Structures are given as C-alpha cells and as structure tokens.
C-alpha cells in the first residue's frame, strides 16, 4: 500500500494564518463586545498532492492526528492513473476541528469526504 502525505509545512502555514487572522476575536458570548458574525465554521484550503490509483484506491496520511485513510476510487479509473487530492482545514471559531479531502481525476471530483467536524 502506497501512502501519500500532505506537505506538513503548508498545513502549518495555513494553521498559523488562521490563528493570526483571528487574533483578538472575542469568543465569549457573554462579553459585551462579542460579535457572532466574526466566528462560526470555516473551511480553509491548505494544500494538494498528486495521487495514483492502486488496487482501486488511493491512500493518504491525514493531519491533525486523524491518520491514514484509503479512499475507494470508481472502477472506471484504471490502475496507475494520476490525479490530485486536496486538503482543506475545518475550523469552528478558528480552532481546527477536522479536514476535508477532495480527490480529482481528469478534472472530475470522484471523492469528497470530511473527517472530524465543522465541515
């Protein structure tokens, strides 16, 4: 089983930018300056990697402690076909709560799956 990994530095940079962009946001709803419009759920694109179909699937190491997951690919995509997997980070009130993976072959999305919450 061949496992692809997303770029750790790209993920780190996205997490830092999320943190920096919302520095000072008040998350306590009892605070008089609390603004519900400054929070909620967000989905931030992080990075993409090349993937190759092997035995009808692609396997990817997911960040945030989620681990390795193999995605079943439709049978009409032959072994050895190269595609792309893209990662988005899900946040709730700017705290990472999960990830979303999109797998694309020849411009067609074949898998779109979330892990965790907030996506």
Could you characterize the architecture of this molecule?
With 119 residues, the chain is mainly beta. The protein has one helix at 8-21, and strands spanning 3-5, 41-52, 57-62, 67-72, 82-92, 95-105, 108-116. A hairpin with a 4-residue loop joins strand 3 and strand 4 (67-72). It is elongated and about 60 Å long. The two termini are 28 Å apart. The mean pLDDT is 89.
Name the overall outline: elongated
Low-confidence runs (pLDDT<50, min 5 residues)? Answer: none
Distance between the termini: 28 Å
Series of H and E elements: EHEEEEEE
Question: What's a concise summary of this model?
Answer:
The protein is mainly β.
Lay out the secondary structure.
Layout: E1 3-5, H1 8-21, E2 41-52, E3 57-62, E4 67-72, E5 82-92, E6 95-105, E7 108-116
Parallel strand pairs: 1-3
Antiparallel strand pairs: 2-5, 3-4, 5-6, 6-7
Notable traits:
single chain; about 120 residues; mainly beta; 4-stranded antiparallel β-sheet; 3-stranded mixed β-sheet; 1 helix; 7 strands; about 50% strand
